[in-house]
Amino acid sequence: MEVFVARQPILNLNEEVYAYEILYRDSHVNQFTAIDASRATTEVLVNSFLTIGLDRLSQNKPCFINFTEKLLLNQIPKHFNPGQLIVEILEDVCFSENLIGECRDLKEKGYTIALDDVISLEQLSNPHLLHYIDIIKVDIRAVPAKLRIEIIHLAKAYNLTLLAEKIETREEHHACVLEGFKLFQGYYYSKPVVVSGVDIPFFTGTYFQIIEELSVSGGEVDVEKVVDILEQDLALTYKLLRLINSSNYQHSNVPIQSIKQAVMLLGTDALKKWLYVLSIEQTERAASTASQFLVKTSLVRAKMCEQVAIKLRAGTRSDGFFLTGFMSLVDVGTKQSTSEAIQSLPLDAEIKDALNGEQNLYRSILEIAIAMETAEFENLDRSLEELGIDFSEIFEIYGQAISWADQLYQDHFSDNEIDNVIK
């Protein structure tokens, strides 16, 4: 499934790219399609950070992204690294006491906050708010010269950075420089450019099962059960790893060796919030037949790798073998090379090496699973002999892995529980 966003550069006084504004798009057509503002932002966040990736989208420069009052009060920006995200507050937001408090908290945590489309002094009338704002975006086509001077004086009084938007000519650029603007955006520099990526749809059944487990009342969340459910869905696992790598959590650079470790690192509260965010764009999209086959094959590989590792007494590392098998087709799902697909994932180095084809124990066991899948028995025989596993044992493990994956699919698609929840 192809996803889209548009990016437009924001330049500094040296006319170098300072950041990009990331805009909602739903196709290659470079125009905004009317959609609920919170949903638009949610899709931009998911598509930018978790699917396309900032390394490709913005060359890791900060991204201006619009936020509604609802998303701000739900503390969605705090899931991201403040060095990667500039919180752009939409012009129609009502600054309640709670929202100003949220701005203060974001500021204290190191986030940069911008006010979008400032076209009147009324938008800057709250002195408490101005203490927590860093950037004011002024639409030079909508603000008369006299009013612009007043906005500029007020901004200077609070030491706010001025960003001129909608610049279309060199003369307008030069005039804004003289007026004291430090950042610049508009068609003169570049129109928004559509960037696309390939997403793997997750199964709504997995989503609702995890939400149910995370919503237990009067007791602790059963992390093992959450992990068991998460291990059924390649797309959610991939997004979880991308989220950790682009998030504002301590130890986000810790190499991941298992799905359980990823869940523990992110935390069940944050996971639950992010599942709600993901659901906004995903719950009405059914997984295609092709993506179902992809995930089912990944599940068989994962279970088989895990069971072979247990057979070899790999101990707690068996979780890592499950993750290796599960992620082994991520190149197919994302339509990228394996190295590109896993480059930004915080996976353990040995798991990354194995996925990239380098020989180690993870790779050896993965190759056994692939050989069974493709009936390459000559290679399989040699690999089994090296590891000391009988042919009959590997056939039994393979059969059990297929049965396990079949049962998961039967559970996902044989009842109407999901439809009832959506309705």
H-E string: EEHHEHEHEHEHEHEEHHHHHHHHHHHHHH
List low-confidence stretches: 283-287, 413-423
Question: What percentage of residues falls in helices of 4 or more residues?
Answer: 40-55%
- Give Rg in angstroms: 25 Å
What distance lies between the first and last C-alpha atoms, to the nearest angstrom?
Answer: 24 Å
Secondary structure: number of strands: 9
**Mean pLDDT across all amino acids:** 84
> What name does CATH use for the topology of the largest domain?
Hypothetical protein af1432
Name of the level-1 CATH class of the largest domain:
Mainly Alpha
User: Per the principal axes of the C-alpha atoms, what is the gross shape?
Assistant: elongated
Q: Output the number of helix runs.
A: 21
* SSE class: alpha/beta
Beta-strand proportion: 5-15%
Main beta-sheet annotation: 9 strands, mixed
Largest beta sheet: strand ordering? 8-7-6-5-4-3-2-1-9
